[in-house]
Design brief:
The complex is a heterodimer. Chain A is mainly beta. Helix content of chain A is about 0%, strand content about 45%. In chain A, the strands form 2 sheets. In chain A, strands 2, 4, 5, 6, 9, 10 and 11 form a 7-stranded mixed beta sheet that branches. Chain A is globular, with a radius of gyration of 13 Å. Chain B is mainly β. Chain B is globular. Chain B contains no helices and 12 strands. Helices cover about 0% and strands about 50% of the residues of chain B. The chains are: A mainly beta, B mainly beta. Chains A and B meet through strand 4, strand 5 and strand 9 of A and strand 6, strand 10 and strand 11 of B.
Chain lengths: ~120, ~120
């Protein structure tokens, strides 16, 4: 079975542009998480989806960041008016909800975003 | 809030040496604890986990014991191999809002094992 996939693997954009990052979770996983990993740091939580709804978006840094999961599977992270500080690796993870406290999150390879 | 502090790297060892990577945490509730590993060129993957106090997680010769009294979850391996070279992340999750198990990570520790 396929793991979590993310596209593109690399994205270079100019300051002020709009970008979309895509995540394809493992089939059947209802929980989906986005994290951001800056150089030399651990991943930081951005947003959590249970099914189609964003159940926790407390980690989004500001209103330039938005994410959707319209059919409860693929998710898109959208960043408006990109800034150089948005440069990071954006990670997606999925999990079968029924696992409870021992839930393992399965991570994708990430999208490396560079804002020039 | 929740936080994880882990040993600063990088750590360089010779093959067959003993490994310890320290990890301590603060949590608002009763966390589950994890070690994730990132091999060169690969994505994050779960190495081991423990969900309650005194549990020991183990995998691939690595072990970590959930110590509630010292709020620690140190990673150990008795004899490292070159193939263990990777970045290791300690993490916790505290259930919030039903089935939300978002992870809080430490900064990561780069381990290099030389032959």
């Amino acid at each position: 079975g396929a793991g979590v996939s993310q596209t593109p693997s690399n994205k270079v954009t100019e300051k002020g542009k709009y970008v979309e990052l895509r995540c394809d979770p493992i089939s059947g996983h209802t929980a989906l998480y986005w994290y951001r990993q800056s150089l030399g740091q651990g991943p930081e939580f951005l947003i959590y989806f249970q099914g189609t709804g964003a159940a926790d978006d407390s980690g989004l840094p500001n209103d330039r960041f938005f994410a959707v999961r319209p059919e409860g599977s693929v998710s898109t992270l959208k960043i408006q008016r990109t800034e150089r500080g948005d440069s990071a690796v954006y990670l997606c993870a999925s999990s079968p909800t029924t696992s409870g406290r021992s839930s393992e999150q399965f991570f994708g390879p990430g999208t490396r975003l560079t804002v020039l | 809030g929740d936080s994880v502090t882990q040993m600063e790297g990088p750590v360089t060892l010779s093959e067959e040496a003993f490994l310890t990577i320290n990890c301590t945490y603060t949590a608002t509730g009763y966390p589950s604890l994890f070690w994730y590993v990132q091999y060169p060129g690969e994505g994050l993957q779960l190495l081991l986990k423990a969900t309650k106090a005194d549990d020991k997680g183990s995998n691939k010769g690595f072990e970590a014991t959930y110590r509630k009294e010292t709020t620690s979850f140190h990673l150990e391996k008795g004899s490292v191999q070159v193939s263990d070279s990777a970045v290791y992340f300690c993490a916790l999750s505290v259930p919030s809002g039903g089935s939300n198990y978002k992870l809080t990570f430490g900064k990561g520790t780069l381990l290099t094992v030389n032959p």
